[in-house]
Task: structure prediction
Amino acid sequence: MPSKVDSEASAAERVDPGISRGDVDGFQLGGRIWGSRLIVGTGGFRSLEAMERALVASGAEIVTVALRRVDPLARGSALEVIDGLGLFALPNTAGCYTARDAVRTAQLAREAFETDWIKLEVIGDDRTLFPDAVELLDAAQQLIDEGFTVLPYTNDDPILARRLQDAGCAAVMPLGSPIGSGMGIRNPYNIQIAGESAPGLVAAPTIEDARE
Amino acid sequence: MTIELNGRTVELSPGATVADAVIEAGADGDSRGVAVAVDGQVIRRVDWGKTKLRSDQSVEVVRAVQGG
Result:
């Protein structure tokens, strides 16, 4: 399926295929140049107003959002806030435990957000929220075959990161520490290796996820 | 006609479409950030109004929320 995101991009410029990473002042990701390397999540805010203030203060251009069953009683819309700020809403597959669920959620997200970008999350349990490596790689391969731009939340495992890059992911997003733990980067050596061992670093940058 | 809509059993008129299910679910079908799957298959927005539902089908209507 052709990408729809190019036609509506407001937060990034398209990248000339002839431009290398060193030629531009910005962060190249998924064929586009971004002014900020920070990707901000939208969970945990007490109100949409607080979320909006944080997004503005962060300077981020990419903001992750989730999909859930419609709640008729819900007030306000996170997406309206994000759209109003001119930011890029990056849908995720939060809450998925299997490749099958993640692929279906990504397909729903493509329809809902009119983008083929997806932050791929396939977790193994709800205690650690660690990724399930087997299901994650399976889902990534399926989604890449369907034309998605895939950014997987991964373990701090350099080999898995390489497998994801080899599969064609636009980036890998290894966790710094368990989500919500606030422990910073628990295994900096692994994160370093994941970055260094990526021969396709320009095409598949390493983005640290879940540091706080 | 009985369908399962977001985990609830609901009654819709015979001939109801996906667009009707979206309204029944409480979503604003005109706004961005809403998507629908019927029996696990995503239905494109342009097809909502012409896709008729059958009894016992399972419909999921989702929307963008904070998270992740």
